[in-house]
Amino acid sequence: MTRRARAMAVATVVLAACAPTSASVTPPPQPAKDTSRHVATPSARDSVLEQRAARLELRLAERDAQVEDLQARLDEARQEVVRTLAKLQTVASRAEAASAMAESEIAVQTLRVAVGGTSSSGATDVGQAGGLLQQASAEFGKQNYGGALYLANQSKGVASLGRSRLGGSDRPRLRPGEVAFAVAVPLQA
Fold this sequence. Notes:
Low-confidence stretches: none
Structural class: mainly alpha
Strand content: under 5%
Helix content: 55-70%
Mean pLDDT: 78
Number of helices: 5
Number of strands: 0
Order of helices and strands: HHHHH
């Protein structure tokens, strides 16, 4: 099941759960002890929390579908750049492309060692950087040195981004229990 199909299924379930029902839930009558303060019943609080959780799940599913769509568009744009570079006579040489691919291979191996199976986002970065490196190798084999250079540089960029997410040399080590944000979040005091 694709993310888009899963998002639609979640949206359907959420909408069905949030729809008003014909039988309204009424709390049992409470003895009239103190009418000056209003205390919500546990069932009312639970239903509000369930509705909020359902809305948040729906928003998450929508964002997942949007990310999937943007990733597909990015992949298509990369392929178009590579096809265009194959048609053009670029100044990229075989040696330059081979050098960039070797640097990319080292960056991917370094990231793979740093991840070591610890985080799913790191594994995603390793997979994406490795895939770009394989595409670069394929273009190199087709003698599209400009495309191979471009893809190798993209692979190095993804690998360096993955290293920075894991806490590269410029960041202090995380304490036990701490998790770094995938995207920098500005802090206001």
